[in-house]
């Protein structure tokens, strides 16, 4: 939204009475879908300060920067995680399947997807998060949404990680303009320096050496602007998900 505001500010500066127009905007009552942006654009189009071609250029540019902004409008956690994320992954890689007791008689919901490979069913745990500006506490999600090249502080907490229950983790990070994927095997998560117990309180938070990572059953990894580059080697494109899952599974089997 910042980029769009900058673009429209440039057009407002073309007005002879730009100060009066800005005051008019500050007094404007906006109710969806009639917003100040709609008002600015329609005003400029009507008085010839904005050509239709310029409008189309602004529109296309905004869409390109916000292809996945709609994902930030999904408010229900299950709607985002269970519905959108799994549907999105299935579109990318149809061979990813939902488990059930016909496939795995011992299945109790401890992992999310599986991939058939040779004689194996690779168990996959999926975690999804959205990149939000962590300093905009009181704003709705779609206004906190960050672009993939943003330098703003953020926090994506990949939580309820249970390495003993799956073979491979598939993480999804949604930005307003892009989606990123990380694929790691369970041993990588279990031994990762940032992997900490999920359920911590005031007492245990002050003790850093009261557990062994290999004993953590359920944990979390908090990804921020400070440590995100540490996961770069696990980044994969959406077209390589299947290949990356198999690669990570093979690495896991080589260790066992």
Question: Would you write up a description of this structure?
Answer:
With 256 residues, this protein is of the alpha+beta class. It has two domains: 2-65; 69-255, no CATH class. The protein is built from nine helices and eight strands. The protein has helices at 2-12, 18-26, 36-46, 52-65, 77-92, 141-144, 186-190, 202-205, 241-255; strands at 113-117, 120-130, 155-161, 168-174, 179-185, 196-197, 219-224, 235-236. The strands form two sheets. It has a five-stranded mixed beta sheet. Helix 1 (2-12) runs parallel beside helix 3 (36-46). The protein starts with a helix and ends with a helix.
Give the % helix: 25-40%
Q: Globular, elongated, flat, extended or rod-shaped: what is the shape? A: elongated
Low-confidence stretches: 201-207
Distance between the termini: 49 Å
**What fraction strand?**
15-25%
Compact summary:
With 256 residues, the chain is an alpha+beta fold.
């Amino acid at each position: 939204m910042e980029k769009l505001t900058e673009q429209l500010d440039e057009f407002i500066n073309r007005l002879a009475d730009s100060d009066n127009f800005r005051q008019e905007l500050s007094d404007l009552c906006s109710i969806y879908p009639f917003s100040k942006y709609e008002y600015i654009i329609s005003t400029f189009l009507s008085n010839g300060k904005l050509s239709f071609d310029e409008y189309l250029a602004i529109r296309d540019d905004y869409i390109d920067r916000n292809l996945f902004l709609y994902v930030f409008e999904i408010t229900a956690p299950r709607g985002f995680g269970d519905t959108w994320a799994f549907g999105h992954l299935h579109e990318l890689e149809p061979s990813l399947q939902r488990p059930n007791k016909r496939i795995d008689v011992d299945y109790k919901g401890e992992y999310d997807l599986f991939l058939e490979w040779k004689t194996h069913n690779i168990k996959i745990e999926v975690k999804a998060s959205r990149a939000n500006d962590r300093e905009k506490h009181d704003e709705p999600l779609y206004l906190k949404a960050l672009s993939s090249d943003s330098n703003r502080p953020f926090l994506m907490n990949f939580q309820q990680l249970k390495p003993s229950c799956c073979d491979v983790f598939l993480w999804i990070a949604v930005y307003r303009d892009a989606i990123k994927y990380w694929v790691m095997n369970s041993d990588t998560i279990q031994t990762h320096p940032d992997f900490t117990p999920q359920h911590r309180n005031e007492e245990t938070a002050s003790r850093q050496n009261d557990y062994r990572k290999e004993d953590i059953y359920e944990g979390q990894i908090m990804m921020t602007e400070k440590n995100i580059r540490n996961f770069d080697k696990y980044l994969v494109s959406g077209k390589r998900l299947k290949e990356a899952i198999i690669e990570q599974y093979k690495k896991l089997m080589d260790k066992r």
